[in-house]
Amino acid sequence: MPSLNILSGGAAQGLVGSVAAKFKKQTGFDITGAFGAVGAMANKLREGTPADILILTSALIATLVKENLAEAASVKDVGRVETALAVRDADPLVAACDATNLRAVFLAADAIFVPDTRNSTAGIHIAKVLRELGITDEIASRLKIYPNGATAMRHMAESEAKRPIGCTQATEIIATNGIKLSGALPKGCDLVTVYTAAVTRSAVHPGETQLLIDLLTATDQAALRAQAGFLDPL
Fold first, then answer.
1. Please, are residues 56 and 10 in contact by the beta-carbon 8 Å criterion?
2. CATH top-level class for 3-80+194-228?
3. How many Cα atoms within 13 Å fall on the side-chain side of residue 62?
4. 138 Cβ contact list (under 8 Å, min separation 6)
5. Is the confidence at residue 1, as pLDDT, over 80?
6. The pLDDT of residue 167 is above 90
């Protein structure tokens, strides 16, 4: 069975999964590859990992175009994704209307589940927010760091902690069974990331890849993107 190879930020995994059956019906192609921290995915491409399609942050796609690793003419924004808080399905929602309240939410948690704080978009931002809130050292023993947001959220869903909290991109929270979205980070601590798709310069199936990008970004797929946690591009 033919397949397209994808290298994508974890934020887009749920959305890609939701169109996979339709794409296969149209083209006969499966979608295979890796989802994870965007920096790690970009490095996989640089190291020669086969890939037809990329879905990474807009800034990183622009860099890969300059590095002659992605086709400039193929670039399309998929949508914006908020970094947000998560709780388990059985736990009450938490409110974080400002930085002071967010600080209290983190301090009240006995386990804080986050993605890679060096290579993932949300993880890098969360580490910065914790520093700005002045609680990095205080919560260090409670910080549970995983390679990407999806993995962090799965572990949170299975956690036996009494008061766990998760923080990653909204799309990864929505796509994970056992947890629920508890709102975006408050103003001043917030992060909204634009995710962008592109065909790689080494794509084996560039035509089918462009069809997948068109499917992910089509006007009539707006409701599906919203359901997955994507806001429309500005």
1. no
2. alpha beta
3. 6
4. 107
5. no
6. yes
